[in-house]
């Protein structure tokens, strides 16, 4: 790929910056966005002049709000099992032999929160908000989105995040270990630059080995993601999942349970 439409790519002073550029969709990703991010990660990941990669979203509203629900019709609009090669993108963030830093400038929701989870480090503006929304909108990201999140924030907290779909403020994300630092939005770039500059003084080979050793311990989750996407593709074909997407687009509450289910639920 020589030029991108959904992302911006900038390489300067040893740092590559990948910016999702879909402000009208709160930086949600469609199939093309994932493909471009994958291409850019390959480009930066194996460029010897690059020592750190920053992943962010354009503007100050959203880092990334996950899959683009307007490009979802029983599946997203791209390639792969669910029409979004998210498991490939998530794995690649882990595979590139240099630190990937999430610069969280706003909402990190759904698949956006999963990207934060997969990044090596995360630095957030104090205005950022985090959360999973799958069970509210007929989706789930079973793999790095669940099992890796549990390693990052703990089992109970990860289950709370998925089962209740609440939103968490930046300082709460800091307390639970989802981000490394929180700063005022106006200081976000300077803080990210400081972290990158420190990393660039280190031995790149030692960092690459350290990163791979962290990954080796949790790489079985990649298998869970493959299995999970297979299941998710089947779930997307159901009325229950499609109701979640429709409800989001129609800006109403989803109705996942029919009256007959409610009666059934009350029986011992
Ligand atoms: C981000 C959030 C919390 C913002 O809420 P609010 O109330 O501040 O704004 P609003 O009105 O909901 O959103 C602003 C505009 O951005 C669009 C909205 O439709 C709206 O557009 P307009 O009405 O102004 O035209 N927008 C926001 N997020 C979008 C998205 N993901 N796709 C398309 N348009 C989006 C609130 O908007 C929210 O909760 N968004 C999350 C939506 C969502 O369902 N994300 C996907 C989850 S599933 C996923 O990421 C996934 C997975 O679980 C597994 C595999 C692959 C992907």
UniProtKB/TrEMBL annotation:
Keyword field: Lyase, Menaquinone biosynthesis
Gene3D superfamilies: 2-enoyl-CoA Hydratase, Chain A, domain 1 (3.90.226.10), Lyase 2-enoyl-coa Hydratase, Chain A, domain 2 (1.10.12.10)
Catalytic activity field: 2-succinylbenzoyl-CoA + H(+) = 1,4-dihydroxy-2-naphthoyl-CoA + H2O
GO BP annotations listed: menaquinone biosynthetic process
EC number: 4.1.3.36
Keyword Transmembrane appears in the UniProt entry: no
Annotated pathway: Quinol/quinone metabolism; 1,4-dihydroxy-2-naphthoate biosynthesis; 1,4-dihydroxy-2-naphthoate from chorismate: step 6/7; Quinol/quinone metabolism; menaquinone biosynthesis
Classification via PROSITE patterns: ENOYL_COA_HYDRATASE
Alphabetized Pfam families for the sequence: ECH_1
UniProt site positions, description: Important for catalysis: 76, 236
A cellular component term, taken from the record's GO annotations: cytosol
CDD domains: crotonase-like
InterPro entries (alphabetical): ClpP/crotonase-like_dom_sf (IPR029045), DHNA-CoA_synthase_MenB (IPR010198), Enoyl-CoA_hyd/isom_CS (IPR018376), Enoyl-CoA_hydra/iso (IPR001753), Enoyl-CoA_hydra_C (IPR014748)
Binding site for substrate: 65-69, 76, 107-111, 139, 236, 251
Enzyme class, first EC level, given as a word: lyase
GO molecular function annotations of the record: 1,4-dihydroxy-2-naphthoyl-CoA synthase activity
Function: Converts o-succinylbenzoyl-CoA (OSB-CoA) to 1,4-dihydroxy-2-naphthoyl-CoA (DHNA-CoA).
Family: Belongs to the enoyl-CoA hydratase/isomerase family. MenB subfamily.
Protein name: 1,4-dihydroxy-2-naphthoyl-CoA synthase
Originating organism: Achromobacter insolitus
């Amino acid at each position: 790929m020589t030029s991108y439409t959904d992302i911006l790519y900038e390489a300067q002073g040893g740092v590559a910056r990948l910016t999702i550029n879909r402000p009208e969709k709160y930086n949600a990703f469609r199939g093309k966005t994932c493909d471009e991010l994958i291409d850019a990660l390959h480009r930066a990941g194996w460029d010897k002049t690059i020592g750190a990669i920053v992943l962010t979203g354009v503007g100050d509203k959203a880092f990334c709000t996950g899959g683009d629900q307007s490009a979802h019709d029983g599946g997203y609009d791209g390639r792969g099992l669910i029409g979004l090669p998210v498991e490939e993108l998530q794995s690649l963030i882990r595979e590139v032999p240099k630190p990937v830093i999430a610069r969280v400038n706003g909402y990190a929701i759904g698949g956006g929160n999963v990207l934060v989870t997969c990044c090596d480090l995360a630095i957030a503006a104090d205005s950022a908000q985090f959360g999973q929304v799958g069970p509210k909108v007929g989706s789930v990201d079973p793999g790095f989105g669940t099992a890796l999140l549990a390693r990052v924030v703990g089992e109970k907290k990860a289950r709370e995040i998925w089962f209740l779909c609440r939103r968490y403020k930046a300082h709460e994300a800091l307390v639970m270990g989802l981000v490394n630092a929180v700063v005022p939005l106006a200081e976000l770039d300077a803080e990210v630059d400081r972290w990158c500059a420190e990393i660039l003084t280190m031995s790149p080979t030692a960092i690459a080995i350290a990163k791979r050793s962290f990954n080796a311990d949790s790489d079985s989750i990649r298998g869970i993601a493959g299995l999970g996407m297979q299941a998710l593709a089947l779930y997307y074909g159901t009325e229950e999942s499609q109701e979640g997407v429709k409800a989001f687009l129609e800006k109403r509450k989803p109705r996942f349970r029919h009256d007959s289910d409610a009666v059934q639920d009350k029986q011992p």
